[in-house]
């Protein structure tokens, strides 16, 4: 009789465990369904954000282009001579429009990256040509700063096979930031081969530096250095995030080393030849 009671007890326990397991399975299925629903909502929200950024970026381009064109015509005095103060005002308008245009470009690039529509176009090129193009790009603004921009000549360096426009955009962002936060002193651009055969580009400055607690988050979206200089300088906080994403698309990585009050060194390390799988993955 006791054996029958024990058997019944075991059967009851087994039935209870089966019921609990079934209930747990139902809960897991419901959880998966909720996660799938939330994942789809996040996907739709991300797609909507990318579409919004892309649309707004395109819409801003036309009026900004008009403002820059009119400012150029005024500065060239095609419609009559300007006074000294008027030239300053026109230069201010042009500078503000260029800043807005740079912000729009950052937002558009962000939308393309998040939508997976960034095109990578690798080609062979010489570092000398890249540095010459960057030097020419920054020449017009060097008269307005007390800092010196120095390009170390890339002598005896091999050619690179990568997207030179994306690399130039990374370095251009590094240089622009360095000049913004280096009221006086120097900003130095260099390149050299690493022991592992990759190429390391560095932009060093003698500026205000970055606190250690901010360095890990610098390459995240919408992150900016909190400083008196930053409060006077506008930006989206997207430039360094885009540099990181572009570097990854080119098979490389970015980083920073900085000492507050002594300056910073931003770098990007890339393979000499862009792997084919990286090329296809970005298309």
UniProtKB/TrEMBL annotation:
The keyword Transmembrane helix does not apply. Its EC number is 2.7.13.3. SUPFAM superfamilies: ATPase domain of HSP90 chaperone/DNA topoisomerase II/histidine kinase, Homodimeric domain of signal transducing histidine kinase. Pfam families: HATPase_c, HisKA. Residues 55-274 form the Histidine kinase domain. It is an enzyme of class 2 (transferase). One of its GO terms (molecular function) is kinase activity. Residues 4-45 form a coiled coil. It comes from the Bacteria. InterPro entries: HATPase_C_sf (IPR036890), HATPase_dom (IPR003594), His_kinase_dom (IPR005467), HisK_dim/P_dom (IPR003661), HisK_dim/P_sf (IPR036097), Sensor_HK_Regulatory (IPR050736), Sig_transdc_His_kin-like_C (IPR004358). It catalyses: ATP + protein L-histidine = ADP + protein N-phospho-L-histidine. Keywords: Coiled coil, Kinase, Phosphoprotein, Transferase, Two-component regulatory system. PANTHER family: HISTIDINE KINASE, TWO-COMPONENT HISTIDINE KINASE. This is histidine kinase. It comes from Luteibacter jiangsuensis.
